[in-house]
Design brief:
2 copies of one chain form a homodimer. Chain A has 5 helices and 10 strands. Chain A is of the alpha+beta class. Chains A and B meet through strand 5 and helix 3 of A and strand 5 and helix 3 of B. The first copy, chain A, binds a DNA duplex through helix 5.
DNA sequence: TCAAAAGTGTTCTGATTACACCCATGG
DNA sequence: CCATGGGTGTAATCAGAACACTTTTGA
């Protein structure tokens, strides 16, 4: 039934892409999955992805396959891990997995655009990261690892900005941290830490509407360098 | 001149493997390179590695190719990154790169064994990590990234034990940290931190020979769990 | 004027640092 | 008996947590 590929293994690229959706208790992490139409694990949910093309790099392949299967373009993209156990698929497949973040406003905009053109990818569905369905292949482990990396990295990196629009309040930023870490943070201490990090540029604009207006901040993109080490240079 | 492979890309596995060698100023990081015999970059130095076999997982392939090219078996092995730029090799190759640590006593033992049998792999040579020759492919960047990861990880993980024999003194352990980080550490404070980490089991044995005998410690392998997250389970 | 979020100040604690000091052994 | 590294004590400093408090708006 299965055809062994000529030389060693075929290379696939998949992406775990997170966004934050408003929730009863603040916000929760959501991610899109694709319902498989073909036979290994047909009708099961799987990570968006596809085969690596001969003429594209790994990062490019991740972006392309993500766009082709879900119509989404991430605001942050980073390689997660290469999975290559012999028995993870009926045929030998090495999957280079990426993980990504997407701002909620982008999700809405991109989905709205697709809906208007009638090309909404209807075998794509968003799931709560804490309530996933049965998954194809080893994708459950992969998502668990991606979640671990996200929660880990939010502590020492500034990736939280990948989930926010250009201008945001400190309460917005704090809510992102709280959602990812799954616990409340002290507003006073959070403010000081955020301000001391040097990654925030205060604007003269304020968000009004609720109670006392909150200052809007902007992300200083000049920082975050050296956070991924010498790898930032190559791609 | 170059033949495009049938489907997408071939998968190679390479390893950056570090050891510590006694030095004028304490100790220095060393790594073995292999002189290429075939044509892309023939006669240039490259990382030990080889092609992924259809019937083996990625970790197994790293161990196997490392043994085949250098005769070495690492005491610590971890996946580093997947490199897959289109132009990193004349033919399309995706390299799954691992990084590894090897105890100095193991190096000596393994090399001595090979020398005795006359099968010393003589196109293998050890280089100081700070004085590398011209390298094939993108291997210079890869090594730079591996060094960054090592220096980074030594701060929050207990991998330093991968460079030490079973029993060691606190001075031995401190020397490993100093070599990797490239700076001196306060012996008194280092002792307290190491003891507080819970990863050290004191023995009743002492190393004599110099001045006051130093207590020998042993590494508590039950710790270090969860340091790589959910990934520790799969391999 | 009052509820609630924005924002500031203060204290306490634990970890890190610097460095003075004592201990035990080989030469 | 002394130089040297092994090992202990202690005060200063710094970052984080906890929480009281003031400010500013919408309703």
């Amino acid at each position: 039934m299965t055809r062994t590929s000529s030389s060693s293994a075929r290379v696939a690229v998949s992406t775990v892409i997170f966004t934050l959706r408003a929730d009863a208790d603040g916000a929760g992490l959501m991610l899109p999955l694709v319902r498989r139409t073909r036979d290994p694990y047909a009708a099961r949910w799987a990570l968006p992805g596809g085969w690596l093309d001969v003429a594209e790099g790994l990062d490019a392949a991740a972006s392309r396959t993500l766009a082709e299967t879900t119509g989404l373009a991430p605001s942050y993209l980073e390689q997660l891990y290469a999975f290559g156990d012999v028995d993870r698929s009926p045929t030998r497949v090495v999957s280079i997995v990426y993980w990504a973040l997407l701002r909620q406003d982008e999700v809405d905009a991109q989905l709205a655009a697709h809906a208007e053109h009638g090309d909404a990818p209807d075998n794509v569905q968003w799931f709560d990261a804490d309530a996933l369905p049965d998954l194809a292949f080893d994708h459950a482990q992969i998502i668990a690892y991606a979640l671990w990396r996200l929660r880990n990295k939010v502590g020492y990196s500034r990736i939280a900005h990948g989930l926010l629009p250009d201008e945001f309040t400190l309460a917005d930023l704090r809510e992102v941290y709280e959602s990812i870490l799954g616990r409340r943070l002290d507003p006073a201490n959070f403010r000081r830490q955020a301000e001391a990090s040097g990654t925030l540029i205060p604007t003269e604009r304020f968000r009004t509407g609720s109670h006392r207006p909150a200052r809007l901040y902007r992300y200083n993109r000049d920082v975050e360098l050296a956070e991924r080490g010498p790898l930032s240079a190559s791609p």
